[in-house]
Design a protein that fits this description.
With 283 residues, this protein is mostly beta strands. Helix content is 2%, strand content 51%.
Length: 283
């Protein structure tokens, strides 16, 4: 695993990660600028900044792609009381050809089964930090503070206002903070951390065809030794070296905490793991 510090303070809150055109794209989370940052996968340095001119960053948490579009999930909802959840949809053609600014289509949504919008900071099951493209749908994966599970909601990729429908659930015994899948969508990777800040990864494969119930596939055991405690992993991006060899890029935001007399300080970092997609083992 290679580790590179991300630029500070510009990327201290790196939250989502995407591999596109031999570059990584990242963004910051709540309160950050409505900007995407292209970064060099080796050095972690910012090589290009693109503003989303008609967007605001309430709480951007993940980024996904299909063949034609990039999707930014403004889906963070720590208190469970947001009524303005949305996903920004950006044409790759426009992103590739416009220098510093692009416009997005807006996919607004609410959870079909959320009836209570009482503010409960870090005690809600309506927060979310995972986003992937899956067939003709976007899948949002929740970060359940209350029960340490994740719920998967399906949303159409079309602009407008939609009701997000529950498609799958799983007891991850931790907080899901990022997701990505292979180009053929046959393998899904999830990252997160436990309440003790220990990072982990899950893989899912052999999902039944045409099913949005991604957890009906084969789910790996939870691998929780990918990084040391204190690496608050937020972003994951997959690069397919070969169909059977995947490189995963991980990012974590700047983190500091005190455990009694011990002070932990971790800068924002970019990391790399290679995975054998047949055995799903790191190497």
């Amino acid at each position: 695993m290679d580790i590179t510090n991300l630029q500070t303070p510009a990327l201290d809150e790196s939250s989502g990660l995407l591999f596109y055109n031999d570059k990584l794209i990242t963004h910051n989370d709540s309160g950050g600028k409505a900007e995407l940052y292209e970064i060099n996968p080796t050095t972690g340095l910012i090589t290009r900044t693109v503003e989303i001119s008609n967007a605001s960053n309430v709480d951007w948490e993940d980024i996904a792609q299909d063949a034609s579009y990039i999707y930014i999930g403004d889906i963070g909802n720590n208190s469970g009381n947001r009524t303005d959840l949305k996903i920004y949809k950006i044409s790759k053609q426009e992103y590739n050809t416009n220098d510093g600014s692009v416009q997005a289509e807006i996919i607004a949504f609410s959870y079909a089964d959320q009836l209570d919008f009482t503010r409960r900071t870090n005690m809600t099951n309506w927060d979310a930090e995972g986003l992937i493209c899956y067939g003709d749908k976007l899948l949002v994966l929740t970060k359940n503070w209350a029960d340490n599970q994740t719920n998967v909601y399906a949303i159409p990729k079309t602009s407008g206002t939609h009701s997000a429908v529950l498609a799958s659930s799983y007891n991850t015994n931790g907080l899901i903070t990022g997701a990505d899948n292979s180009p053929d969508e046959s393998v899904i990777y999830l990252v997160g951390y436990s309440t003790s800040e220990a990072p982990f990864i899950y893989t899912i494969h052999n999902i039944p065809k045409n099913s949005l119930d991604i957890f009906s596939g084969n789910i790996s055991e939870k691998t929780s030794d990918i990084l040391t405690i204190g690496h608050q992993v937020e972003g994951i991006a997959l690069f397919e070296i070969t169909p059977m060899n995947h490189r995963l890029y991980l990012s974590n935001e700047k983190f500091s905490a005190s455990l009694g007399p011990i002070k932990i300080k971790v800068p924002a970092k970019l990391m790399r793991i290679e995975i054998d997609a047949k055995t799903l083992n790191p190497h």
